[in-house]
Structure formats: structure tokens, C-alpha cells
Amino acid sequence: MAVVDVKQGSSPIILGFPHTGTDVPADIWERLNDNGRILADTDWHIHDLYDGLLADATTVRATFHRYVIDANRDPAGVSLYPGQNTTGLVPETDFDGKAIWKDGRAPDHADIAARLRDFHAPYHAALAAEVERVRAIHGVAILYDCHSIRSHIPFLFEGKLPDFNIGTDMGKTCDGAIEQATLTVVEAAEGYDCVLNGRFKGGWTTRHYGQPETGVHAIQMELAQSTHLETEAPPFAYDAAKAERLRVHLKDILVRIEQIAPGLKR
């Protein structure tokens, strides 16, 4: 299978989708237990949610599931959130802290090394190539990393997660104008709540690529799945009516940051 799907566009905006894939090779699928095979921690339908919002945006999407290997984790296995519950490069549990592998079948160091080579590295090679291509055209590239998660996960955070969760690693990964434009839209979005650099401050992708001094800016948007799913449980069905209301605000964000891009040239 192709482990990454790339659609090239002419915009300075690149949309990253590291967690929407559901492909699991047969040999890995056989090792997952019944809980793991639910694939509950997928960013369900996020590539559909953003589809067509910015016609000329480049998209880079991992087709493999994060249980194969997490494309938004440091390849060295360093935790994004030291001291807090999280999942690793190849998760041992789901977001509820429950095992996803059959007894004695969890991936070992050799498995992880092979998955880094066959899945993680190709995804980031493709993403890095698009960042360089777009920067060469515009003198600037803005990576908008697209994510979602269930709104209630006690293992990871208390209470209900806000609808919009903007991550810029405390302003380090993008110019402040990008952060402010995004915040302005979500703060004005009626019926939604939001937070900047709350529980999710930007994953490895955002932190790795976001180097404003080089002309590459990155921002992560983590959406509560209650904003666009019928239910945050199997079958995780897409709610078209909810999604259309949400897409208005997501499009506004993308259009605004695209308009900002020319002023960010080094």
C-alpha cells in the first residue's frame, strides 16, 4: 500500500493529516487485540472535514493507522508531554489506557525500527519535500496540522476538551500573526469554545517543522470530535450538519492565514 497520499497545490498552506489513516498491514492487524482493532484513536473523517476548504492547499496524508506507528511522535521516542499520560511512537495502549496488543505480541525494538523505516520516515520525507517546494515558490510555507480527539478522555485530561485547541508550542512554531488570526476566528465562533496552547500545545510535527526564522511556520488544530461526529464511539459516523457549521470557521481560518503569508517572507 502507499503509506502517504500527497496532493500538490499552489497555495502557501500545507495541510498535514498524520492520524486519519486506517490502513493496518495484515501481520500487524493479527497482533492487535479486539480493543485495538476498534482503531478508536483515529482522527475520524478529518481529511473529509477539510476537503475543499482551500482549493489550492497542498495536502499530505498518512494512510496508515497510528497504531502501526504514530507519525506525529518524535522518531527518537521522546515524550511530547513529560509527566503527563500520553501515547508513544508505537502505542502500547489506547487513549483510555487500555491494552491494544494481544498478550506477548506488543511490538519490540526491531518492529519499531522497521516501522520507522517503512511508515514514519516516508511520511515525513513527503511532508518535508512539500514544505521545501512550497517555500521555494512563495518564500514562506505554513503547515497547518489537522487533528481531532474525543472530547472526554479522563486518562489524558480532566473534564471536557474545548472544541478548538490551537497549538503553537507557546508561540514558538509560527509568527504571532498566524496564531492571532486563528484565535480571532475561533473566539468569535458562536456555540464553540476554544483554548490556545492548553492540553495540546502542538505535536512533534508542529514543533519539528515550525521554524519561523527559516520561513516555515506551523500550527496545530486539535478539534473535539463532538464538533463533527454523530457520536464519539463506534462507528464514529460523520455528522454532515455539524460538519458544515464547523467548516465555515475552518475555512475562515485557512483563508486568513493564507492572506497573511506574503507578509511573512524573510
Q: Whole-number average pLDDT?
A: 95
Kindly estimate the percentage of residues that lie in beta strands according to DSSP.
5-15%
CATH fold-level label:
Aminopeptidase
Query: Element order, helices and strands?
Result: EEHHEHEEHEHEH
Largest sheet: 7 strands, mixed
Taking all Cα atoms into account, the compactness measure Rg is 18 Å
Sequence of strands across the biggest β-sheet = 1-3-2-4-7-5-6
Structural category is alpha/beta
CATH architecture: 3-Layer(aba) Sandwich
Total beta-strand segments: 7
The number of distinct helices, counting runs of at least 4 residues, comes to: 6
- CATH homologous superfamily caption: Zn-dependent exopeptidases
Instruction: Estimate the helix proportion, in percent.
Output: 25-40%
Distance between the termini: 39 Å
